[in-house]
């Protein structure tokens, strides 16, 4: 009897050009040969996340894991916590201009930190653990304070007359919000914010506060005035700044609705003369849609109330803290889901209704919760067979960031094509290079069938000198007992 596939997706222009989803990175990786790849994901810090947000974040961690193996480079995740999201908006009773205050200005650094800890810290730590991927977290407040970001912003002002139509095609007024130094409120649409002076040392703006009247804001690369840029402008400056780094390839992970908005950012990047090798590389993740085809939206719910809720939406999809299970359990389910989507470009580069995502989630493997978390390593067949036979008890790898996470007692799942074997780490030893390693490790425990010289030659064919330069880790392994069914073949 033929089995029905879990997921059926039609072909698309992009999917037709790719064998695997991660191949979208390959042209740029080949062109610039980066030392590392950082997957960048930004999220508004404004309460409990919904499924769409967590899907983008999970994709970042999973792609970091896949790209690390695919391109033999270090990878990591860079999480931007957008604490400039509006916390409160009021109307000036006289002019009817809207004023807003950011989360940062309302709650302070510690209040924002508490929100991040509540909604994201445990989730990210769990994702990092499950994918052996390091992440760093940067608030928008820290990002705008960095000299590189501020200098890039000042450079865009030199071409403001051209980029403003890309940033604001309907009226040409760029929303550069410069909060009042006394109260922290800023005009939402910056109608009365003026750039009055610009030279190589910096810029001077004037703006109007609803309580404190006219004020001046000097901006230079190192001063501490606050730059609250509207969404498109913030992305323009961020992508320009990140594009200058020739050693790290930054990959922007964005929800699918951004595919439309990025046309405007690209127009502005072109006006600024951004070279092709500095143009941002972006991956758009599947959108989560209501049955009408509209994006699942928390703000729409806030405006319209529960009536706007699609009938098919499950409570945890809107507020992921409502998930019936712990964080690791939620993360493992999401990783399974995103891995299924990434497994075929036809599945990944498209949108999903909440109903379809609910169906997929309820079809996840029944033993997912019982499966132990394990580091994963691909391995050649001849070594796989030796591990499975229990005669290879030392595995050798270069000491990149994912290996640095391995601890004695952890599990490692070795994969070779359709086979896998689960092992437990008995000890860890680190060395400067393969020669030093073989001075200390019994040659036969690495490979009982080859001499030291043969093994050195083989291993150096696998790892070029720049990889060996990371250092070498020798991992003691033994076969792990697994409950029935867990060590199944995928
Ligand atoms: Zn004020």
From TrEMBL:
InterPro entries: ASCH_domain, PUA-like_sf. This is ASCH domain-containing protein. SUPFAM superfamilies: PUA domain-like. It holds the Pfam family ASCH. Transmembrane segments: none annotated. Residues 377-481 form the ASCH domain. It comes from Nocardiopsis rhodophaea. SMART domains: ASCH.
């Amino acid at each position: 009897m033929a089995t029905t596939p879990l997921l059926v997706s039609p072909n698309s222009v992009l999917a037709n050009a790719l064998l695997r989803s991660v191949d979208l990175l390959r042209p740029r990786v080949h062109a610039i040969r980066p030392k590392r790849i950082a997957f960048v994901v930004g999220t508004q810090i404004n309460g409990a996340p919904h499924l769409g947000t967590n899907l983008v974040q999970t994709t970042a961690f999973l792609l970091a894991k896949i790209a690390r193996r695919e391109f033999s480079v270090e990878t990591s995740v860079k999480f931007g916590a957008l604490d400039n999201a509006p916390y409160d908006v009021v109307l000036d009773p006289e002019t009817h201009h809207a004023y807003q205050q950011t989360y940062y200005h309302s709650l302070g650094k510690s209040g924002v930190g508490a929100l991040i800890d509540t909604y994201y810290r445990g989730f990210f730590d769990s994702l990092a653990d499950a994918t052996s991927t390091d992440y760093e977290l940067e608030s928008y407040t820290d990002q705008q304070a960095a000299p590189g970001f501020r200098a890039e912003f000042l450079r865009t002002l030199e071409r403001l007359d051209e980029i403003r139509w890309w940033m604001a095609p309907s009226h040409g007024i760029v929303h550069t919000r410069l909060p009042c130094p006394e109260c922290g409120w800023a005009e939402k649409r910056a109608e009365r914010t003026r750039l009055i002076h610009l030279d190589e040392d910096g810029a001077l703006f004037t703006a109007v506060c609803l309580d404190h009247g006219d004020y001046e804001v000097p901006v230079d690369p190192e001063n501490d005035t606050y730059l609250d840029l509207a969404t498109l402008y913030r992305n323009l400056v961020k992508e320009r700044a990140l594009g200058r780094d020739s050693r790290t390839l930054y990959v922007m992970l964005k929800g699918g609705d951004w595919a439309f908005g990025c046309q405007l950012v690209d127009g502005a990047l072109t006006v600024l003369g951004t070279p092709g090798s500095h143009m941002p590389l972006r991956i758009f993740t599947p959108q989560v849609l209501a049955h009408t085809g509209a994006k699942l939206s928390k703000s729409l719910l806030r405006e319209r109330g529960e009536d706007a809720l699609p009938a098919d939406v499950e409570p945890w999809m809107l507020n992921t803290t409502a998930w019936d299970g712990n964080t690791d359990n939620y993360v493992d389910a999401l990783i399974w889901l995103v891995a299924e989507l990434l497994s075929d470009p036809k599945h990944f580069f498209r949108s999903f209704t909440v109903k379809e995502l609910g169906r997929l989630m309820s079809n996840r493997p029944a033993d997912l919760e019982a499966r132990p978390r394990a580091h994963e390593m691909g391995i050649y067949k001849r070594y796989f067979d030796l591990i499975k036979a229990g005669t290879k008890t030392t595995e050798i790898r270069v000491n990149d960031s994912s290996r640095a996470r391995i601890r004695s007692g952890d599990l490692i799942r070795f994969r070779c094509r359709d086979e896998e074997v689960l092992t437990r780490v008995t000890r860890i030893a680190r060395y400067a290079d393969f020669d030093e390693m073989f001075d200390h490790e019994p040659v036969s425990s690495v490979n009982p069938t080859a001499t030291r010289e043969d093994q050195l030659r083989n291993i150096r064919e696998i790892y070029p000198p720049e990889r060996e330069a990371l250092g070498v880790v020798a991992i003691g392994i033994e076969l792990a007992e697994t409950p029935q069914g867990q060590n199944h073949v995928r």
